[in-house]
Backbone:
């Protein structure tokens, strides 16, 4: 936007312009903060839901692994029982004690293998039940978080829609006010705003103190501020000071 034809403002008019510009810019800050918190909350909740979905996928893979192990060990038990039956039949037809003893050892080995598989099945079954409980819990968490996330998204959409027109209107007003302030003073205002943690470059005197940093202001300096004959800044924080009646 091009600068309007410059006109010399009185110090009081400059202070009024700066004070109103501060009020408008502070309102814009408030709207941005309001809209700025929700997007981060939505992002955090979206990441949390995605994390839960990844966890659910891992749990489902663990459940499949448990089921596979249980199935494999049941097959192993069936094979071991079949082998034991064969070895017992062979014992009926052995030619000497050595062959009988060897078959007995094979039967014993298969029986130990059955016991080991049964123990493995018991352990994997316990793991499976725990994983299934985790799966149910995680699914519930995903459903709850998704409801909250959708609500946050809805709130964000509503706020963005509600504040869009107001923000745009305030930004137009801010640009108009900037046109009435000389460039050097405007640059100082913006520099102070940028360095102030709360964005306040123009503050009122409150209880004989700076409204920004709350440092005590001498009585004579307060009198100078009330007279509005020169622009005075706080010697501690650098903010532009105006009297409490400035509106």
Residues:
């Amino acid at each position: 936007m091009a600068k309007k034809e410059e006109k010399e403002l009185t110090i009081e008019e400059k202070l009024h312009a700066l004070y109103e510009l501060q009020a408008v810019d502070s309102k814009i800050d408030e709207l941005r903060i309001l809209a700025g918190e929700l997007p981060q909350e939505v992002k955090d909740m979206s990441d949390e839901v995605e994390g839960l979905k990844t966890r659910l996928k891992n749990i489902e893979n663990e459940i499949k692994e448990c089921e596979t192990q249980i199935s494999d060990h049941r097959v192993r038990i069936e094979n071991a029982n079949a082998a034991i039956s064969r070895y017992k039949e062979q014992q009926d037809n052995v030619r000497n004690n050595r062959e009988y003893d060897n078959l007995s050892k094979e039967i014993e080995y298969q029986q130990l293998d059955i016991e080991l598989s049964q123990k493995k099945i018991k352990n994997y079954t316990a793991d499976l039940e725990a994983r299934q409980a985790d799966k149910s819990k995680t699914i519930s968490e995903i459903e709850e978080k998704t409801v909250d996330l959708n609500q946050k998204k809805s709130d964000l959409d509503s706020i963005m829609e509600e504040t869009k027109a107001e923000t745009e209107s305030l930004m137009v007003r801010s640009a108009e006010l900037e046109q009435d302030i000389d460039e050097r003073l405007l640059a100082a205002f913006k520099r102070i705003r940028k360095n102030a943690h709360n964005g306040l470059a123009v503050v009122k005197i409150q209880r004989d103190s700076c409204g920004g940093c709350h440092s005590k202001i001498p009585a004579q300096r307060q009198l100078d501020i009330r007279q509005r004959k020169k622009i005075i800044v706080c010697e501690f924080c650098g903010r532009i000071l105006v009297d409490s009646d400035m509106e």
Notes: The chain has four helices and four strands.
